[in-house]
Amino acid sequence: MKIICIGRNYASHIAELQNERPDEPVIFLKPDTAVLPKQFPFVIPEFTDDVHHEVELLVKINKVGKYIDARFAHKYYDEIGIGIDFTARDVQQKLKDKGLPWEKAKAFDGSAVIGDFLSKKVFSSLESITFELTKNGKTVQKGDSAHMLWKIDEIISYVSQYFTLRTGDIIFTGTPSGVAKVASGDVLEGFIEEKKLFRIQIK
Question: Is the pLDDT of residue 18 over 70?
Fold first, then answer.
């Protein structure tokens, strides 16, 4: 499986990091080694002292597809989940300043938290799915898929123009504002419409 991530998909987060609003989706990849094993804590890597949490809605691909029309994209996923794209912000900034790829800051081991998934049938509308991240019991990020610059079906269609999507691939759909540094001892919990789907301890 591969992990496909969409950057800069919420205007509030773009403004938060003072980035330029893109004309098309920003895509980067994480290897399968980035997946944090279930029940494992997230250990802050030695090469950074500024890791940020970025909570995101996830989509799990259920069949092979290429050049998918947005009208048919809904046939390529049955489940919606939630996860974290951990980002070494200090490393990322140095790479961005030099015009270099982000992988060292985004794709390191353990940088992808994948929580539990829910059937998309439980949602009254995929156009407005609310989700949030709490840190030590306090809400730090809140999002709504209604605020995505590119909706789920549009993302699947766009990505499939470049990469063949395969069963089990995961798409991270972008993070809302509220990203912040994590510290040893923090506990992060992710919710979709008040249902808790992951709990991660930081070490």
Answer: no
Q: For residue 109, what are the CA distances in angstroms to 45, 87, 90, 120, 187?
A: 9, 11, 17, 29, 19
* Nearest partner of 188 among 44, 91, 71, 74, judged by Cα: 44
Q: State the sign of the Cα–Cα–Cα–Cα dihedral 16, 19, 20, 21.
A: negative
143 in Cβ contact with 175 (< 8 Å): yes
- Please report, as a single letter, which amino acid is at residue 126: L
| Residue 113: strand pairing partners | 84
Q: Which residue has the higher pLDDT, 12 or 126?
A: 126
CB within 8 Å of 75: residues ≥ 6 apart: 63
Give the pairing of strands 3-7 and 170-172. parallel
Task: State how beta strands 51-53 and 87-88 pair.
Answer: antiparallel
3-state secondary structure of 62: coil
* pTM, 2 dp: 0.95
